[in-house]
Amino acid sequence: MNNSFYKDSIVLLEAAIDNMTSKLNIIRKYKQSNNEKDPIEYVLSRIKSEDSMKEKLKRKNLEVTLDNALTKIYDAAGMRIICAYIDDVYSIVHMLKKYKDLKVINEKDYIKNPKPNGYRSYHIIFELTLDLAGDEKKVFVEIQIRTIAMDFWSNLEHQMKYKKSIKNQEFIIQELRRCADEIATTDINMQTIKNMIYSEEEI
Predict the structure, then answer these.
(1) Do residues 151 and 88 touch, judged by C-beta distance below 8 A?
(2) What pTM did the predictor assign?
(3) What is the DSSP letter of 108?
(4) Tell me, what DSSP letter sits at residue 48?
(5) What are phi and psi of 97, to 5 degrees?
(6) Do residues 191 and 85 touch, judged by C-beta distance below 8 A?
(7) What's the CA gap between 29 and 74, in Å, rounded?
């Protein structure tokens, strides 16, 4: 990545992602130590590219400065957490909120309230307080948490959004919306089956 825009602040963004990754690993180990299933399948992280950040600042009518990028735009540091089941999503949200050095800035539950195009995911923005050799710094991290099925749908929808000259675009949009609803139903059914399996073990 070209760090000319973020300059030394790239270290801050990388530290924020490392810190959040450590928190997620603790959650996973805590769950497993209590004989519970690991709620996370995998985690992806990224620092928003210089070009994407500049474009977003312009789109929001903000001056293209590093200060605005770090204080007015909340997704310079971003993470995506992929789970197998819907209840894992909410379990992770609940446990992350328990960390005292994390402050919730904004959250949107697109699972219970999907976007019109069918998009589903749980978005939460944290303000993280970092202790860098005794110097406290605050940085924002955007977390997206979703199931494997939701992520599969989102990846395909993202490809369509950025691909030019698509034939039958209206039909594809309708099909994606239909698939989103079917995926949501499948997620709920898989959750129900999982709950039945584990309840049988407890009898």
Answers:
(1) no
(2) 0.90
(3) E
(4) -
(5) -65, -15
(6) yes
(7) 28
How far from the centroid of its chain's Cα atoms is residue 52's Cα? 17
* Residue 200 confidence class, pLDDT cut points 50, 70, 90: low
Residue 137, C-beta contacts closer than 8 angstroms, at least 6 positions apart: 12, 129, 130
The pair of structure tokens assigned to 40 is 């996370």
Q: How do residues 65-113 score in pLDDT, each as one tens digit?
A: 999 999 999 999 999 999 999 999 999 999 999 999 999 999 999 999 9
Task: In whole angstroms, give the CA distance from residue 203 to residue 11.
Answer: 51
- Give the containing element (helix H, strand E) for 107: strand 102-109
Contact 146, 19 (CB under 8 A): no
What per-residue confidence (pLDDT) applies to 74? Answer: 96
Distance CA 140, CA 126 (A): 6
For residues 123 and 108, the answer to whether their CB atoms sit within 8 Å is: yes
